[in-house]
């Protein structure tokens, strides 16, 4: 349940709007080596440059695992409020407050680190099955995120830039044992019967990490900002995965890829459950445009170097909608 205090509803009310449908590009991760894979890699790069957003097909994540994780999450959100609140320390349960700087949304959520020291130890007997399924789901989606980054490296012509262990430079940033990855499960209850036609579910923002892999239960609500700033709605698709370019990937590509601004609007009678994997780098990783990608800009980097923990610390002080990269841009 999401309970808003007097005055808070006005903060998240939105005017009725039906943005046009986004033209979401599809990338087939299962394309066989050769011309088909080269075409998929080119399509991926074009989508990241143009929109910072695309759909992934041929992803290899078992549908049964997705359904089971989503059903277990929906079951958790249906529990009594007191039980859910009790899982704040173990499952990162929260409601209506996003981050610590006053952002509100018509949402309740779970927010989990992907590399906790002893994952199952923090789960109670009643949340153990949910925790186990979310862990299994995360492993599968993280693998997919790395496969997307491998294909991306091929499309960018930097696939030989690994250290010989098979992973390319981009995939390795998310694959390492100490990579700072997270899983978020959001539940947007149906829009309440009020005077407002639309509510902010999750306010507009860009994701700070390298890559986000999102899926939802076939309920609409996700919108992406186009280059001209206009919103476009992402058609609901219960079977697909969507990928967002994050701020860090914008930096690594020296601004060639676009960290996509997105939001969730609640105007549906159906509840929306989404699961998002955020692939972030290890805390001490120094981030800067990849040298191989500086060519197009005459060798000039648009961003100053920073570590992921520096970026995270500075980002945690910002409101959701703020541009977190501007302070790292070179003049
Ligand atoms: C307002 C905030 C919530 C957020 C941390 C921040 O200070 C700014 C970035 C927000 C965001 C957006 C993407 C992810 O949902 C998230 C977990 C993340 O890494 O950055 C959230 C943060 C959060 O909810 O704590
Ligand atoms: O719940 C969604 O569909 C998107 C949420 C989102 O953008 C986020 O959690 O960062
Ligand atoms: Fe997001």
UniProtKB/TrEMBL annotation:
Domain Fe2OG dioxygenase: 178-281
Pfam families tied to this protein: 2OG-FeII_Oxy, DIOX_N
GO biological process: gibberellin catabolic process; response to light stimulus
Entry GO MF terms: gibberellin 2-beta-dioxygenase activity; metal ion binding
InterPro entries: DIOX_N, IPNS-like_FE2OG_OXY, IPNS-like_sf, Iron_ascorbate_oxido_reductase, Oxoglu/Fe-dep_dioxygenase_dom
Cofactor: L-ascorbate
Keyword Kinase among UniProt keywords: no
Keyword DNA-binding attributed: no
UniProt KW keywords: Iron, Metal-binding, Oxidoreductase
PROSITE patterns the record matches: FE2OG_OXY
PANTHER family in the cross-refs: 2-OXOGLUTARATE (2OG) AND FE(II)-DEPENDENT OXYGENASE SUPERFAMILY PROTEIN-RELATED (PTHR47990)
Protein family per UniProt: Belongs to the iron/ascorbate-dependent oxidoreductase family.
Name the record gives this protein: Gibberellin 2-oxidase13
Species assigned in the record: Zea mays (Maize)
Lineage: Eukaryota, Viridiplantae, Streptophyta, Embryophyta, Tracheophyta
The gene coding this protein: LOC103649600
